[in-house]
Design a protein that fits this description.
With about 325 residues, the protein is mainly β. The protein folds into 2 domains: about 55-170, 3-Layer(bba) Sandwich (YerB-like fold), CATH 3.50.90; about 195-315, YerB-like (YerB-like fold). It is built from 3 helices and 22 strands. The strands form 5 sheets. Strands 1, 2, 3, 4, 5, 8, 16, 19, 20, 21 and 22 form an 11-stranded mixed sheet that branches. The longest helix is centred in the N-terminal third of the chain and has 27 residues, at about 1-30.
């Protein structure tokens, strides 16, 4: 009788100990990028990080070796910026809950600094920059969220080649001040003007974006260089509104390696021509932004306010 009691007691202790180990392992984060611990592979964007007060801006790679990206479908706004060689890079903004993993993360550009001033004091997550840009990055009105400042926020995906394998856990970078009132794009009903449109193509010298209207999804489905643009765990990326914003461009700093000259810098203060696609329609438009702190606004060519649709927004900064 005593022996049976002793065996039962030992078995009970072992069960409790094993359960405790399993719970602790689960809380530490499995090695798939979904938890706060070290990770070797990027995961989907179905789960979300804690809500933030400030805008989180992340520089995301979009060359062929960087696709599919992670966390791209969850972005509230994506800027497509011209960079050296006629290529493009993405600046993804999150002002709701970001996904738990975003990437691949790449280098900052001078264009980012002027774009982000309209959002107050956002957090910028990036990896590297041209040497001559670093002083401006560190003196800008933003929270620096690079690996140098937040090393625990980043991990490498061992299944991808470097430098297209650096990913971000956004909950590990600092938050900042709440986004200013009226800084975010104005959303609302479209004006009466607008021509039916089922597709749009926007070209850069070495990149081509195509947008196809899906009435069922209520989104423009995005393709890049002839293939669907997908985000891990979320399928093809879509957006409620597409804006082709024509901008003046000057040649500025070198690329992040410090060896590629004449990286384009887009001028996003002032005004110019634009085209807006939303709700299956195309709207000739103009854009205007009075100063660095002012938000960018769009109007029809007749002067009516042209708000964006509810949902994700893609703005492509196309050299005029």
């Amino acid at each position: 009788m005593k022996r049976s009691w002793w065996v039962a007691s030992v078995a009970g202790v072992l069960v409790v100990a094993v359960a405790a180990v399993l719970i602790a392992w689960k809380l530490s984060g499995e090695p798939d990028g979904s938890g706060p611990g070290p990770a070797t592979t990027a995961t989907s964007e179905k789960t979300a990080a804690p809500e933030r007060r400030a805008v989180l801006a992340v520089k995301i790679d979009n060359v062929a070796a960087a696709r599919p990206q992670t966390g791209l479908s969850a972005a509230d706004l994506v800027y497509v910026e011209p960079v050296e060689g006629g290529l493009t890079r993405l600046l993804a903004l999150y002002w709701n809950r970001p996904p738990t993993v975003i990437g691949p993360v790449r280098s900052a550009r001078a264009t980012d600094l002027t774009l982000l001033t309209q959002y107050g004091k956002p957090t910028l997550a990036y990896s590297g920059a041209a040497p001559e840009l670093l002083p401006s990055l560190h003196s800008a009105s933003l929270v620096n969220g690079s690996p140098a400042e937040s090393p625990n926020a980043y991990f490498r995906d061992d299944g991808r080649p470097s430098p297209h394998n650096l990913y971000l856990h956004p909950e590990q970078v600092p938050d900042s001040e709440p986004v200013p009132v009226n800084a975010l794009p104005e959303a609302g009903p479209a004006p009466e003007a607008g021509a039916p449109a089922s597709a749009a193509t926007i070209r850069f010298p070495a990149a081509s974006f195509a947008f196809t209207w899906s009435a069922q999804a209520g989104r423009w489905l995005i393709s890049l260089d002839g293939s669907p643009l997908t985000s891990t765990g979320a399928g093809q990326v879509g957006t409620a509104t597409v804006v082709e914003q024509r901008v003046a461009v000057r040649l500025g700093e070198r690329g992040e390696t410090g060896t590629v000259p004449n990286s384009p810098i887009a001028r996003t203060i002032g005004g110019g021509q634009a085209t807006v696609w939303r709700d299956g329609k195309r709207f000739p438009a103009v854009w205007e932004r009075a100063n660095e702190q002012a938000p960018t606004r769009f109007r029809t060519t007749s002067g009516q306010p042209l708000p964006v649709a509810d949902g994700p927004l893609w703005i492509l900064l196309v050299p005029a």
